[in-house]
Amino acid sequence: xxxxxxxxxxxxxxLTYLRDERTDSPTFRxxxxxLVTLLAYEATREVRVEPFEIRTPVASTTGxxxxxxxxxxxxxxxxxxxxxxxxxxxxxSAEVGFLGMIRDEETLEVSTYANRLPDDLTxxxxxxxxxxxxxxxxxxxxIDYLTGKGARDITAVCLLAAPEGIAHLDRELAGAGxxxxxxxxxxxxxxxxxxxxxxxxGDAGDRLYGVV
Length: 212
Fold this sequence. Notes:
The chain is built from 6 helices and 13 strands.
């Protein structure tokens, strides 16, 4: 597993306001979208491309375009939806799938309740969006689900991570033989007894969409 923390002052700046409890939901959504676009630049560094012949107003030349099959972006519902627009802005021709997962607040166990994905992901580059890599359970289950559909090139994009979640993900993926890249805005101090990242930014879904 490869972990990359995107070290950029604009990322730290936007994260500061995402963390602030005074930031309202509309502002939080806008900042999250902007931050994901910055993270997407790093996450797509190795996106597959192929030659593409074009003509400029001056001469013919060879450029590049996204290779087929197109990459697929998979936000984990519901909080991952708040990251989707920022990722699609950088990869507008990518396809989008959805994976609904929920964590029990008492047991911290994760279960899948919905999916909208192709039956076969063989040969696809998959970009998974999940704001918080906390315990790591959600991302482990999501990656297991995607690999079960044939995915072998997976990049996870998260706003924040806890060291415990990174370690758990690394342990679970150690014997899988599938390269996974994790792109983060920051690695925070720890998890608290409720499984929340400290200092973190609270519940990303609630901050994005309100308490429901």
